[in-house]
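quick one: heme C bound model?
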Amino acid sequence: MRNVFKTAIIGTLALAGVGVGGLMAANAAGGSSDYKMKHMHWHFDGWRGTYDRAAMQRGYQVYREVCASCHQLKYVAFRHLGDKGGPYYDDHYPNPNDNPYVKAFAADWTVEEVDLDTGDIIERPAIPADMFPPIYPNAAAAAASNGGAVPPDLSVMVKARTGGADYVYNVLTSYDKDDNYMNKAMGIKIAMANPLSDGLVEYADTEYTDKDGKVHIIKAPEATVDQMAKDVTEFLAWAADPKMEQRKSLGLATMLYLLILTILLWFSYKAVWRNVEH
Ligand code: HEC
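yep, here:
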């Protein structure tokens, strides 16, 4: 009987250990011979890290205005932008289909669909429920426009490459000064010409009114290559793992539960064996 309790307590502690270990697991970064991968401190790193909302919003702007002329986000729907944990989540719009930002972003894209009456392909503005549409009609057209290489889908890019967010950031910031195609993080010339240059997008200041009616202006950072690369990576990290924040808080609740369970088991173990010679 005593062993059963011991096993239970040790088992609980072991489970807690595995949980903590899992949450803290870090990505190892890859890279080429003499280029040194820069390791960044991401807002979402660590067992309590969350996405930086302002950075994700700027990142969406970079994706929309720059990357989206070549790269699709086929696993993301417009409505996801307004989900809990997403860049445009707003308490006032628990249903992201009603979120005015989400509606405006969707309407800014065109989707094609088959008209069920005539069989023709028609174009219409996207709605929040639509997925991000393809950029090219097919892979051959994509390759023909990009020197023979198909721009990969970016929905899960941050998860798909060794080094994760650090890798994507390094790809975007490691082009050779004299050769627009030479990417030092990848160690070769690639078919994507350096997509970023200082000032390419215009970040807007944001303002909010506090509860006393006072208006505060939050200055937008300078749109340097480094800043845009960080922001679009933050956005793509969210796209690849939109449930991260929920998972981390569930992990924390689980740890707490296991801790309390361990304490209770310890006291019941003591109580059960109180009058037994052992
Ligand atoms: C003009 C088209 C174009 C634009 C704009 C563009 N890309 Fe690319 N991208 C490509 C092509 C083509 C490839 C494939 C390169 C290759 O495999 O040689 C690629 C590859 C990539 C890769 C993959 C590297 C790998 O490991 O395979 C990433 C990450 C990437 N792009 C991110 C971005 C981001 C983020 C933006 C916006 C800031 C962007 N791209 C803008 C065309 C583009």
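Residues 21-32 have pLDDT under 50 and may be disordered.
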